[in-house]
Amino acid sequence: MQLAALHARARAPAASFRQHTLVVALVIVFPVIGLEQFLHTTPLEFQRQPVYEALHWLSDSLLALPLAALAVWLGDWFATRLGIGASHVSDVFTRACIIALVLAVLLVPGEALHEQVDQLTHTHVSLGFHSHGAASPANTSGPLVLTGIALHGLTDGLEGQAVGLPLAFVALLYARNMRRRRMSPQGSAAKKEVRV
């Protein structure tokens, strides 16, 4: 019985969440970047400069938003190609896992971009707070430094999924339920009643 249900799920057309890409990306990116900032900033700095830290969180989140949108789009594309639908909660969770993994990988080049932007725009690089450990070495060239930056970015990306994965799951569930509501006969009737 279960085998037949799995075959039916595999043959069913995979649903796409592309129309919700930006919304899901927004739901994910601000908490993920906020967690990373929290992990990289000392409590003293939060107390001494709360406005600066809030603006830094906002600017870093907006910098990472295109990467988050790309992660949602690519995760949706991979899931659709793999035939993962959205009819079951486990399918939606699988999609969220794919999105979280893609975002963790995309945050690796995002880390290098973040460091370059920070050197151009933020004073914390020169003042020495908001440390990024391996990403701020004294020697700034060579394969060892690039490997350290890449590992730091991947570690940050994976840590961020502690909040990114559950939020992606909830956002995708919400998008799926909204689509079901629009497509159901009651949802269509309710829309017609409102229009009258």
Q: From N to C, what is the helix and strand string? A: HHHHHHHH
Q: Specify Rg, calculated over alpha carbons.
A: 20 Å
Q: Total number of helical segments?
A: 8
For the sheet with most strands, the description reads: none
Q: What is the approximate shape?
A: globular
Q: In which range does the helix fraction lie?
A: over 70%
User: Unreliable runs, pLDDT <50, ≥5 residues?
Assistant: 6-14, 133-137
Number of DSSP E strands: 0
Q: How many domains make up the coordinates?
A: 1
Quote the average pLDDT. 78
Terminal Cα span: 46 Å
User: Helix/strand/pairing class, anyone?
Assistant: mainly alpha
> What is the beta-strand fraction?
under 5%
Features:
mainly alpha; 196 residues
3D structure, described in words:
The chain is an all-alpha fold. The protein has one domain (about 15-185). The protein is built from eight helices and no strands. It has helices spanning about 1-10, 20-40, 45-50, 50-80, 90-120, 125, 145-185, 185-195. Helix 2 crosses helix 4. The radius of gyration is 20 Å and the shape is globular. Residues about 5-15 and about 135 have low confidence and may be disordered.
